[in-house]
Design goal:
The chain is an alpha+beta fold. The chain has helices spanning about 55-60, 65-70, 75-89; strands at about 10, 15-20, 25-30, 35, 45-50. The protein has a single domain (about 10-89), classed as Hypothetical Cytosolic Protein, Chain: A (2-Layer Sandwich), CATH 3.30.1230. It has a three-stranded antiparallel sheet. It has a two-stranded antiparallel ribbon with strand order 1-2.
């Protein structure tokens, strides 16, 4: 009997590898909008982040989102993500 493989994703803030279910997916929709994808099933390009404000701050400082999406990220997007993350936690 084989064990089921657990998908691993890397946090764009701290760089730790964790299971996909532990992480929050930041999604860029085909329309160019950035949202938190709690279900992890929405269409679009995604980047993963630990569910902590510290990791979000590290991602901002280290430009993790810019690298993941290969584009400049407006400051309002980070502010919105931080508000949503505080609301979730």
């Amino acid at each position: 009997m084989s064990t089921k493989k657990i998908p691993q994703r890397q946090c764009i803030g701290c760089g730790e590898m964790k299971s996909k279910r532990e992480m929050i997916r930041i999604l860029k929709t085909p329309e160019g909008e950035f949202v938190l994808d709690v279900t992890g099933r929405k269409n679009g390009r995604g980047a993963y982040l630990c569910p902590s404000v510290e990791c979000l701050k590290k991602a901002v400082k280290g430009k993790g989102l810019e690298r993941s999406f290969k584009m400049a990220i407006p400051r309002e997007v980070y502010d919105t993500l931080e508000k949503e993350m505080v609301h979730l936690g």
